[in-house]
Amino acid sequence: MLRLAGLIDGLNRGVARVLRWFALAMVLIQFGIVIGRYVFGVNSIWVQESVLYLHAMLFMLAAGYTLLVDKHVRVDIFYAKVTPAARRRIDIAGHLLFLLPSMAALAWWSWPSVRNSWRILEGPISVGGIEAVFLLKSLIPLFCALVALQSLAILARLFANEDAA
Fold it and tell me: In whole angstroms, how far apart are CA 58 and each of 22, 33, 36, 107, 150?
């Protein structure tokens, strides 16, 4: 089980390594948009939407990695003041009762929209934009899968540590 958890970690680390470049591309493209618009009077909706697509990919697909490195948002009302054993129980409960059911619900309820978008190859958000909204919507189930897989990897480690303790 821990070997599978390591493979999931590797998957999310690999995704994060690729996505780092998306952040750089997003900044450079946005800089180009500003220079093009205000210096040369040139504007492209397609290029503007490319920043939106990169931003969506960066945040949706990096969520599993963020969970892996424990840099996600955590409400530390009780967590910071309890023992490591209590933290482990809080983490297990959080993953089993909240995170995994949330990812399952989001995947379940978004799937018809994603499926329909692929069925019609849903076009651009704006006239002249990127003709691939179906790809943008596909980020939702990918987000759910990467976060849920990372949650399962964390749970495997939590249960393994509980057995060792």
Answer: 7, 19, 24, 19, 17
